Amino acid sequence: MKRWINAWPSRPVAALLGALPFVLVFFIYLWGSNLRLQENPNDKLLPAFSQIGAAMDELVLQPSARTGEYLFWQDTQSSLRRLGLGVLAAASLGLLAGLLTGALPMLGAGFTPFITAISLIPPMAVLPILFIVFGLDELSKVMLIVIGIAPTLMRSVYHNCRELPAEQWVKAQTLGAHSGQVMLRVLLPQLTPRLIDSVRLSLGSAWLFLIAAEAIASNDGLGYRIFLVRRYMAMDVILPYVAWITLLAFLTDFALARLNRWAFPWYNPASRH
Question: What ranges do the domains of the chain cover?
Fold first, then answer.
């Protein structure tokens, strides 16, 4: 008897099933928008695609009369720069701290409880402190991302390090490796692909902290634009901006997954999803 848990779709069927929810959401929105606009042509909650196109044409293709910049692309560039710097700094700190505390028991005993404690602090609660300490410039926005995801990455790398087979540690030391060689030659190559997986899982949180920081104190950025136009109920701008953020997050996740498969094929065999 064939069981559903063993029924794997073919590639075309998997692609069709993956596209189906997006198509369904599209038609539900189209139906809801037409229904509301028929009742009230001035309704702003679910604008027609023609209204969205007109609003985005102004932001994407026409320079601002005040600054001469293309606001959509300027917002995208600013947000991606902040996100990239924050995630890169958080990943570097996570790898360094996780490797040292995981490989050196004395450091692990001293710093693991502290890392666990700071990982439980809501990052949004320290946002005012960041603005006071670092000001309202770029550094405070980047630091919010770092504080938001770095402790989680540290804990992830630490646990991944401690979960590596003990035989690998013993064999390396039997062959004469000192502590630094064990960390660099045995642990680091195995922790790096796992770190990339952890970064992928943290991208949603990183975007959340970025949008929050831009909404509170910024002059550009995707989050800034969304909260700027919300006072006018400009859903014809908010909805495409949210969709664009989602697409950027998806492409970032996809790029990291491809990087992991390319750089560490032993960790990501072809059959692995």
Answer: 71-263
Rounded CA-CA distance 209/142 in Å is: 9
The conformational region for residue 119 under phi > 0 = left, psi -120 to 50 = alpha, else beta, is alpha
Residues 109-168 pLDDT 10s? 999 999 999 888 888 888 888 888 888 788 999 999 999 999 999 999 999 999 988 888
Is the distance from CB of 116 to CB of 155 less than 8 angstroms?
A: yes
Enter the tokens of residue 73. Answer: 């692309």
Give the CATH number of domain 71-263.
Answer: 1.10.3720.10
pTM comes to: 0.88
How far apart are the C-alpha atoms of 267 and 193, rounded to whole Å? 7
